[in-house]
From TrEMBL:
The keyword Lipid metabolism does not apply. Residues 4-239 form the ABC transporter domain. It comes from the Bacteria. The gene is phnC. One of its GO terms (molecular function) is ATP binding. Pfam families: ABC_tran. Coiled coil: none annotated. Keywords: ATP-binding, Cell membrane, Membrane, Nucleotide-binding, Phosphonate transport, Translocase, Transport. InterPro entries: AAA+_ATPase (IPR003593), ABC_transporter-like_ATP-bd (IPR003439), ABC_transporter-like_CS (IPR017871), ABC_transpr_PhnC (IPR012693), MetN_ABC_transporter-like (IPR050086), P-loop_NTPase (IPR027417). It comes from Paenibacillus spongiae. This is Phosphonate ABC transporter ATP-binding protein.
Length: 239
């Protein structure tokens, strides 16, 4: 079944440039999809349109059978809670601990005002511990995020997304700031989340070899348009 359908999506930030033009594709439940393309192709805009951080200029985005442009404010918040976001620069609160960053992912930044780990209930703490253990971060749980390596920070980003129990993970250049060995760890975690937990993954990458290694489907974007949509095998025989 289809989890996400994009139908003639377009985005124009200003009068002269079309960042996205008539983008149509769909993603099945449980699929691992990579979007590849050079810098400025529109990859980031595409992900931001999907969770409506950016308002599309035209077209439709249907998530789990619902047109996301017709959601009420409350329904929009609920829809966003089903989408885990991963960013190139992690977007963590550096002066807070790993556990606090993860739990804030679930409870929202309002809770950052309260600050202390003490405000969370036992079930939330257990869930946080469990997710951090899965990601190999048990020992970092009470460390401040500014003491972590880049690879560790990105795993915290993944943990923060996972605690929301998302249906879809949107990952915007998750390995672009990491060395090859940390990149492999992150991509292996994303594959595991996809295959073992059944969470659909949509990831922006500029490394074609990584996309080929991990994806069920690859979508190539250039100058705001789709230039390829197929399997890794089809991409390699195309070239
Ligand atoms: P990519 O993620 O593939 O590097 P982006 O989606 O960031 O591509 O950018 C696509 C195009 O849209 C680029 O020409 C970029 O300059 C432009 N763009 C991105 N964000 C904005 C913005 N907030 N305002 C105006 N133009 C933008
Ligand atoms: P990245 O390489 O991580 O995609 P960018 O440097 O492309 O980052 O963009 C950084 C920020 O600037 C983003 O919020 C993006 O939307 C915005 N941006 C990108 N291009 C433009 C532009 N031409 N005009 C205005 N804002 C832009």
């Amino acid at each position: 079944s289809k989890l996400l359908v994009l139908d003639n999506l377009s985005k124009r930030y200003n009068k002269d440039a079309m960042a996205l033009e008539n983008i149509s594709f769909s993603i099945k439940n449980g699929e691992f999809v990579s979007i590849i393309g050079p810098s400025g192709a529109g990859k980031s805009t595409l992900l931001r349109c999907i969770n409506r951080m950016v308002e599309p200029s035209g077209g439709r985005i249907v998530f789990d059978g619902k047109d996301t442009s017709r959601l009420s404010r409350g329904a929009l918040r609920q829809f966003r809670s089903k989408i885990g976001m991963i960013f190139q620069h992690y977007n963590l609160v550096d002066r807070l601990s790993v556990a606090e960053n993860v739990l804030h992912g679930r409870l929202g930044y309002k809770s950052a005002i309260a600050g202390a780990f003490g405000i969370y209930n036992e079930q939330e703490k257990r869930q946080c511990q469990q997710i951090l253990q899965t990601l190999g971060l048990s020992e970092q749980m009470f460390k401040r995020c500014d003491q972590l390596s880049g690879g560790q920070k990105q795993r915290v980003g993944i943990a923060r997304a996972l605690i929301q129990q998302p249906r879809l993970m949107l990952c915007d250049e998750p390995i672009a700031s990491l060395d090859p060995s940390s990149s492999k760890v992150i991509m292996d975690h994303l594959r595991n989340i996809n295959k073992a937990m059944g969470i659909t993954v949509l990831v922006n990458l500029h490394q074609v070899d990584v996309a080929i290694k991990y994806s069920d489907t690859i979508i190539g974007v250039n100058k705001g348009k789709i230039v390829f949509n197929g399997t890794p095998e089809e991409l390699t025989t195309d070239r």
